[in-house]
Amino acid sequence: AQDQANSTAMGAQQFALTQQQQNLNPYIQAGQGALGQMQDLNNHWNFDYTADPGYNFRFEEGLKALQNQAAAHGGFQSGNTGRALVKYGQDMGSQEYQNAYNRWMTTRQAQLGSLNNVAGMGQNAVNQSNAAYGNYANNVGDQARNYANQTSNLHSNYADKFGALSTGYAN
Length: 171
Fold this sequence. Notes:
- The protein has 171 residues and is mainly α.
- Helix content is 90%, strand content 0%.
- The protein has three helices and no strands.
- The longest helix is centred in the C-terminal third of the chain and has 92 residues, at 79-170.
């Protein structure tokens, strides 16, 4: 009976640990995936202000306005129009670079923040998993020690009874 109880207790401990690990595993995997994505984002700083939709819209609209104005006055191919277009392009790049960068950085920080939250859930799951393994080891150790103590006590009781019986026969 004692062996069966010990075996049942050990099995219950193993089942609980396995169930906890299965429950935590999706969070651990999600955290690992988020860390990979964060590393990718941090390794690839691909900022290109000319790819910013806001910059492109403003640039194209301003360019059209200059070209339409030059065409309306008959100076579309003049040197003044060329200089005005170059100046516009340089000024636009200078003015819009910071705006485009700020929009890009805001998006990037939002992405990293979301990934950081998921990575944090993964870290919490790892901590819980480690605690579950520690509890399992402690519980199994306690169970084994209790079993050993009970077995030792049982053998001691048998020895005492056998000794008493032997002494009784000797007298």
